[in-house]
């Protein structure tokens, strides 16, 4: 989910959300949460009403999508870094349970649907990206010479850390909570063929909204995030108003019993604040997530193993040999171009 309505809120300030051209990212290193990208790929293919499968009945949508998306980025001079999730924190258990229930309901509605449009709609909502599929993506990505980072917990916080430490320029994602984790910038729609690419910088958010970083975190918690429940009656506009007036969630909650506050916010009182409203722990997690130390990360872009890519995609997963060979030819040209323009494939050894 990221942060509920944060993007919508930011649209109210001029120049916080900037349209960019794909050429703007040539030569830049970009961190990517692989789970989100694979999810988008599978969703897009499910618009046809079916998954891409091989003769054994194995789903292969994720592999073809990652293969093509990676080649496309390299052709545009972008150096991707794919980040994989580890074990989610316990504070996310509630939202994960809710998502499982939603997928279960979607599968049931898909079976009950009596028209193609509804079947496809619920088919898309029931997507599950499996550990097996992600492992297969990791194998392919590494054969293509692209660095992989395995996060100890959340990929989004690890992506943010890579950007904070300067190992990458920014994070390509649709999840706004990358900013809450402190990434200096995010790029949305980087691999989209239909939507405009936009960039959002944390520094501009703080300046335009006249907030410090801790206040921005509290704003995001009030709006709604994956790690904490929300307070009923607080929407997008009121969340920003409260942070501007009180400076923090804690001060706001402490003020709820005051007479003048009761009059101003007649629909709000302390009884509406959930007992399990762990905003302090959530704020601390956004500030200090469990991530891999950048000094332990070795980012290198290397020459792809073209023969093994062909074997992996064709022999193991049954893709059309001619189509994969054409993709490999594009990949080879992209790497040759990068080497020519930059003398060598850039890398960090930290």
Q: What profile does the largest beta sheet have? A: 7 strands, mixed
What class do helices, strands and sheet pairing give? alpha/beta
CATH architecture of the largest domain: 3-Layer(aba) Sandwich
Choose one word for the global shape. Answer: globular
Number of domains: 2
Element pattern in H and E: HEEHHEHHHEHEHEEHHHHHHEHHE
By CATH, the topology of the largest domain is Rossmann fold
At the fourth level of CATH, the homologous superfamily of the largest domain is 5'-nuclease
Number of helices: 16
Average residue-wise pLDDT: 90
- Count of DSSP strands: 9
CATH class of the largest domain: Alpha Beta
Distance from N terminus to C terminus (CA atoms, Å) equals 32 Å
Rg over alpha carbons: 22 Å
Structure description:
- The chain has helices at 6-10, 34-46, 61-75, 93-112, 116-125, 131-143, 155-164, 177-180, 202-209, 213-223, 236-246, 249-255, 259-264, 279-287, 306-316, 321-342; strands at 17-20, 29-33, 79-84, 148-150, 170-172, 185-188, 197-201, 298-300, 347-349.
- With 350 residues, it is α/β, with parallel strands linked by helices.
- It is globular, with a radius of gyration of 22 Å.
- Strand 5 (170-172), helix 8 and strand 6 form a beta-alpha-beta unit.
- It has 16 helices and 9 strands.
- Strands 1-7-6-5-2-3-4 form a 7-stranded mixed sheet, sandwiched between helices.
- The model is unreliable at 346-350 (pLDDT under 50).
- The protein has 2 domains: 6-207, 5'-nuclease (Rossmann fold, 3-Layer(aba) Sandwich); 210-287, DNA polymerase, domain 1.
């Amino acid at each position: 989910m990221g942060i509920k309505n944060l993007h919508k809120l930011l649209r109210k300030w001029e120049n916080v959300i900037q349209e960019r051209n794909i050429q703007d990212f040539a030569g830049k290193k970009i961190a990517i949460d692989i789970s989100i990208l694979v999810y988008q790929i599978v969703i897009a293919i499910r618009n046809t009403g079916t998954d891409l499968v091989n003769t054994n009945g194995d789903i292969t949508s994720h592999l073809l999508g990652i293969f093509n998306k990676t080649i496309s980025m390299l052709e545009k001079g972008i150096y991707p870094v794919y980040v994989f999730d580890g074990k989610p924190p316990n504070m996310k258990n509630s939202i994960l349970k809710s998502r499982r229930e939603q997928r279960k309901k979607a599968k049931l509605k898909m079976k009950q649907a009596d028209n193609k449009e509804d079947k496809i709609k619920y088919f898309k909502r029931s997507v599950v990206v499996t550990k097996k599929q992600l492992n297969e993506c990791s194998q392919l990505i590494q054969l293509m010479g692209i660095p992989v980072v395995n996060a100890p917990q959340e990929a989004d916080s690890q992506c943010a850390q890579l950007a904070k430490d300067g190992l990458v320029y920014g994070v390509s994602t649709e999840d706004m909570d990358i900013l809450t984790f402190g990434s200096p910038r995010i790029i949305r729609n980087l691999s989209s063929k239909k939507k405009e690419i936009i960039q959002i910088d944390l520094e501009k958010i703080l300046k335009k909204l006249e907030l410090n970083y801790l206040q921005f975190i509290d704003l995001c918690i009030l709006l709604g995030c994956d790690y904490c429940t929300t307070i009923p009656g607080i929407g997008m506009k009121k969340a920003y108003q409260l942070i501007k007036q009180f400076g923090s969630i804690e001060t706001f909650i402490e003020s709820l019993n005051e007479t003048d506050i009761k009059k101003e916010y007649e629909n709000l009182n302390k009884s509406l604040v959930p007992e399990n409203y762990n905003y302090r722990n959530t704020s601390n997690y956004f500030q200090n997530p469990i991530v891999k130390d950048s000094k332990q990360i070795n980012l290198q872009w290397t020459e792809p193993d073209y023969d093994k890519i062909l074997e992996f995609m064709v022999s193991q997963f049954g893709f059309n040999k001619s189509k994969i060979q054409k993709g490999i030819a594009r990949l080879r040209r992209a790497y040759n171009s990068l080497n020519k323009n930059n003398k060598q494939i850039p890398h960090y050894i930290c």
